[in-house]
Amino acid sequence: MAAASRARRWSLAGKTALVTGGTKGIGRAIVEELAGFGVRVHTCSRHDADLQDCLRRWNAAGEGGGAAALVTGSVCDVSVRGDREALLAHHLLRDAAAGGGAAASVVNISSTAAFYAAPHLAVYSATKGGMNQLTRCLAAEWARDGVRVNAVEPGATRTDICDTSGVALGEKTRRRLADAGAMDRVPIRRIGEPEEVAAAVVFLCMPAASYITGQVICVDGGRTLL
């Protein structure tokens, strides 16, 4: 009996998830990690070419009923209201919501930029700080409805965000961040991998994390300790 209870706490089989921005970096790692745990995942991207490329790769990996076969996708810019409404009306998400009765989990992706100052990142850092407080407020508001809300704060992670996010970093800053010396303030002394961030996200979605809400969890190799 104890073994069965433990298995349920650490299982996401049969669950449904929406992952926005799931074709690159951390988002893609989250999609693949969730699918690996048997979750039906719907993801979206602003760029159809990126989405189709990922879907082809996931479908190829999922031939024969593999986990990647559980992933679907659509083109959507979540900053546009009409796109958001169309996304939430997707049949997979609508059917999941209609099931009712099951606890739900929201995991926002923040950044350690909310903790410390960095050149050229004023707007980015401010939005991440706002996301942290939004996470806490929604956790307090939605708890009565059985919805947990947490955030994960990645530190320096091996993604292409500097090339695709619109954050303008000068060449000097790029070289400084790429230099191994930039890891001097990271106790683990290396850059993070997207899969390590995805693992934290998946944990927060599990029944094993059912008493965790309103938290902002750093996945940064200890960077915010120093």
UniProtKB/TrEMBL annotation:
Hey, what's the signal peptide range on this chain? none
Q: Does the keyword Magnesium apply?
A: no
UniProt keyword terms in alphabetical order: NADP, Oxidoreductase
Checking Pfam families in the record gives:
adh_short_C2
The answer to whether the entry has keyword Oxidoreductase is yes
Q: Taxonomically, which superkingdom?
A: Eukaryota
| SUPFAM superfamilies, per the entry | NAD(P)-binding Rossmann-fold domains
The record's GO molecular-function terms, alphabetically, read: oxidoreductase activity
PROSITE patterns in the record: ADH_SHORT
- What's the protein called, per UniProt? Uncharacterized protein
